[in-house]
Design goal:
Layout lengths: L23 E7 L5 E6 L5 E3 L13 H11 L5 H8 L3 H22 L7 E11 L8 H6 L3 E10 L5 E7 L3 H14 L2 H4 L5 E5 L4 H10 L1 E3 L14 E3 L4 E10 L5 E10 L2 H10 L9 H13 L14 H18 L3 H7 L5 H4 L9 H6 L9
Parallel strand pairs: 4-7, 7-10
Antiparallel strand pairs: 1-2, 2-3, 4-5, 5-6, 8-9, 10-11
Length: 374
Amino acid sequence: MSYERYSCPNENCKMHGQVGAGNIGHRCWYGKNKERELLRCKICKKTFSAERDTAFHHSKLSKEKFCQILECLCQKAGVRGTARIVGVGTNTVLRVIRIAAAHFEAVSRIMIRDINVTEVQMDEFWSFIKKKEKNASEDEIEQGEAGDRYTYVSMDAASRLIISIATGRRIQETADTMLQALKLCLSCAYVTCLTLILFTSDAWDQYYVGLKKIFGFWHRPRRRRRTGRRRNFRQYIPWNLLYATVEKIKDGAGKVTRVIRTVVHGSSDLVEQVIQDSSVSSTINTAFVERINATFRAFCSRLVRKSCSFSKKSSYHDAHIKIVTAFYNFVHPHRTLTESNGRNTSPAMEAGLTNHCWSLMELCSFPVSRASCQ
């Protein structure tokens, strides 16, 4: 067993929080059947469980049953249905959702970092909490207890990797949260204006406003004349960040009759250059991220339309979305990628983050140091 992902939990140790320092080793096996491993720091001699920084820490469930609950939740089973299949209580299923969501989010934050992308597609899809917005009161909508709930998604078109998500109301703050998480995941080459990157979305203006706010910078233009008042600061987007929109015009029956593609920021020549170099796109599009809408509704029971599995609390809705996102990125073999590569391939594999499709057991067992997440 490799101990490179573990770090010393002792805050007084000089190696505290340092992953891959070589100071963690095996101590002994413990438990009723000697199935749990005890580790020890070679510097401060602190001992701790190998499950300390995993999703299994302080869980009385067996690892197999813990993963079986997650498998059911990622295959469109509801909370009560999962409880009946696995033979546990509904409160146990809800507790697994809370624990797994926090762990999977931390794993994604560590693994999806400094990635190289050239085409990012953005979109949002709808769900609701407790009741639809037209039936909810203003207080319930304001407090997030009921009404519409949107999930904002950014995706790498080439690898189909979901880079960042954000859940909330369909307002600018939710889009900004998704874009801020996206910026933290990108390689520094994009921030330092060394590589072209094309952002595409629908014509919803929140994305362009968020791009200027998150990726832009403030600059005061030079005076046009020697005298007079200085010009005000203006917000600009770096030249290498290109942005284009896809607007679909529909008729009364909901059929798309026309598609309008517009280059909002950057030159058309640079956008055309990115499209020509792309291995998946032949024109400006949002086809890959729009497919996520159907994929998530096939995985998550809370998103299924006209069913009784809709979320009653926003916290469990958001947690379930995080679980399905990690399942999609690391565990589930993507059909198109699998057919093109000739073997089971997940989006994380295509992006070069892993070398095989993880199992839920591997995802839950991946140690996440608390210090490395700060």
